[in-house]
Design brief:
- By secondary structure, the chain is of the alpha/beta class.
- 46% of the residues lie in helices and 18% in strands.
- It contains 14 helices and ten strands.
């Protein structure tokens, strides 16, 4: 196969991940990749031993390449990876995560089906606990409108890239329209911000009912760091509104479920976990979203697409009983321990 005829490019942005990177690399080495696959590491100016780990591993793996850049953020690292990628399809892996041993065995036949996009299930890993998260109970095909409506809701198909494989030209199309693919001003949710643009041309999307990606939830990550939670949830509301406006402008008939669920998450975080200082800082915003959610949140209880566990939280919030979530969480921990 010619160098420019790659079937798949796997892009991995890396920044100071020496603790987790070996596990990620090992999971790649465990696959039986052929020469149709290239693996691209983008070192975003790491100052730990990540650059040395990557330089060493590419010396013994012909299908792996590493590119070093001055620290410019994850969005720039993704953009750089797309510039150097040669694959027909693009897959993403976060360096603190890893893939199951049968990832390529499962994915490779699907890439021959001439479809635009594949998304698959994940295994959530938190500490020593692992549990699969399934979006649906069977594999199936989605058309353009079905995919867009799922992305607008955001509860079953979440907007991270690591569970998706998409044709590379769809990223390039986005670059032509916007001047860049991922917004370099965003250090978080850069994938969410771009995904509905990238997926707009998708006509055939396959959902694979199989958990083949291990997503590591870390307390010190940008996503889970308690110090950033309220700010991150506010950004989520903003991006859901942006996505809703994009679809409405494109004359796609959708509802505001995604926005309301994002408001629900903000209210829950504010009520249960925020400090006295945070409560003072975000009080006016909280009151606004609490009022909006009380008026519109009832619709979610009748929405067949909203998950039952989310409906329980919605019900509690509507009656100002969200502190019961603490007790439910503790009960769940007790039932699942050991």
């Amino acid at each position: 196969m010619k160098e420019n005829d790659k079937q798949l490019s796997i892009i991995i942005p890396v920044y100071n991940m020496e603790k987790f990177l070996p596990k990620c690399i090992k999971s790649l080495e465990n696959q039986k990749f052929d020469d149709s696959v290239e693996i691209i590491f983008i070192d975003d100016g790491s100052f730990d031993s990540s650059p040395q780990i990557l330089d060493q591993v590419v010396m013994t793996n012909n299908n792996m390449n590493v590119f070093h850049q001055t620290n410019a953020g994850v969005a720039n690292a993704r953009n750089y990876g797309l510039q150097v990628a040669k694959g027909k399809y693009i897959a993403w892996i976060d360096p603190d995560d890893y893939i199951t041993n049968d990832w390529w065995k499962v994915i490779s036949p699907l890439l021959k089906l001439n479809i635009d996009m594949i998304y698959f299930d994940m295994i959530i890993k938190r500490g020593n606990m692992e549990y699969p998260r399934y979006f649906q109970n069977k594999s199936y095909m989605l058309n353009h409108d079905e995919l867009c409506r799922e992305l607008a809701r955001g509860d079953r198909i979440q907007s991270h890239l690591c569970s998706k494989i998409i044709l590379r030209p769809y990223y390039l199309r986005t670059k032509t329209e916007r001047g860049y693919i991922f917004d370099p001003t965003l250090s978080y949710c850069e994938d969410f911000d771009a995904l509905h643009y990238i997926c707009w041309p998708v006509k055939k999307c396959m959902y694979l009912h199989k958990a083949i990606y291990v997503y590591r939830q870390r307390d010190d990550s940008i996503v889970n760091n308690r110090n950033n939670k309220l700010q991150n949830f506010l950004l989520g509301i903003k991006l859901y509104k942006k996505r809703y406006d994009f679809y409405k402008y494109s004359t796609l008939n959708i509802n505001k479920t995604g926005i309301l669920l994002a408001e629900c998450r903000f209210i829950l975080e504010y009520s249960l976990y925020s400090t006295v200082e945070e409560k003072g800082k975000y009080h006016k915003i909280y009151k606004k979203y609490r009022h909006d959610f009380f008026i519109n949140g009832w619709k979610l209880l009748n929405d067949k697409h909203v998950l039952y566990r989310e409906k329980i939280i919605i019900f509690l919030i509507l009656f100002h009983l969200e502190k019961i979530c603490f007790k439910l969480k503790n009960i769940f921990k007790y039932l699942t321990k050991g």
